């Protein structure tokens, strides 16, 4: 929780360096493959575009992708699908994590990025993963949104401005 507070307050120093955002995302997805395989979930990575030069904190961005991907896997039934996309979207980079999972109730959507809030407690987790995602995105000057339909899945979108 202290880490989230520091990220939100801007007191944690990001270790910003030149990096290839698509490679950071790809490495995070690689880390998620065993978890997806254990859950019987198909995990795919799509890279749309050619230039992914970014200036950010690779470790925190990796953590953000792992948190989003792990959530998607946790809430997707066996034989379901999770797709992670990184898109060169002109003035910004777009990262999407989309699943065919259980979805998020409409009443819970406005609160899913709050610490310790969980839409589906029975599925486990600490309730911190999405709060960390928002804090990392905010620290990089970006924004994160979620769209969902119960029973049909969810899509989380992160937009990061180009340096």
Characterization of the model:
With 163 residues, this protein is of the alpha+beta class. It has one domain: Heat Shock Protein 90 (2-Layer Sandwich). It has four helices and seven strands. It has helices at 2-9, 21-39, 58-74, 129-139; strands spanning 17-20, 42-48, 53-56, 81-89, 92-99, 143-149, 153-161. The strands form two sheets. The protein has a five-stranded mixed sheet, covered by helices on one side. It has a two-stranded antiparallel ribbon with strand order 1-3. Strand 4 (81-89) and strand 5 form a beta hairpin. Helix 1 packs parallel to helix 4 (129-139), helix 2 (21-39) packs parallel to helix 3 and helix 3 packs antiparallel against helix 4 (129-139). The longest helix has 19 residues, at 21-39. The chain is globular. Residues 118-125 have low confidence and may be disordered.
CATH top level assignment: Alpha Beta
> How many structural domains in the coordinates?
1
Radius of gyration: 15 Å
User: Total helix count?
Assistant: 4
Question: CATH fold name, please?
Answer: Heat Shock Protein 90
Largest β sheet strand count, sense and barrel closure: 5 strands, mixed
Give a quick precis of the structure.
With 163 residues, this protein is of the alpha+beta class.
Q: Which helices and strands occur, and which strands form pairs?
A:
Elements: H1 2-9, E1 17-20, H2 21-39, E2 42-48, E3 53-56, H3 58-74, E4 81-89, E5 92-99, H4 129-139, E6 143-149, E7 153-161
Parallel strand pairs: 2-4
Antiparallel strand pairs: 1-3, 4-5, 5-7, 6-7
Helix pairs in contact: 1-4, 2-3, 3-4
């Amino acid at each position: 929780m202290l880490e989230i507070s520091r990220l939100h307050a801007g007191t944690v120093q990001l270790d910003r360096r030149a990096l290839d955002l698509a490679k950071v995302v790809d490495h995070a997805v690689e880390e998620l493959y065993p978890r997806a395989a254990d859950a019987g979930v198909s995990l795919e990575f799509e890279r749309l575009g050619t230039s992914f030069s970014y200036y950010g904190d690779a470790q925190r961005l990796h953590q953000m992708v792992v948190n989003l991907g792990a959530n998607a896997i946790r809430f997707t039934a066996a034989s379901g699908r999770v797709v992670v996309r990184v898109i060169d979207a002109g003035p910004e980079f777009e990262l999407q994590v989309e699943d065919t999972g259980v979805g998020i109730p409409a009443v819970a959507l406005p609160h899913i990025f709050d610490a310790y809030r969980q839409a589906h407690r029975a599925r486990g987790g600490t309730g911190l993963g999405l709060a960390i995602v928002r804090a990392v995105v905010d620290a990089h000057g970006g924004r994160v949104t979620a769209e969902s339909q119960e029973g049909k899945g969810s899509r989380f979108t992160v937009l990061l401005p180009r340096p």
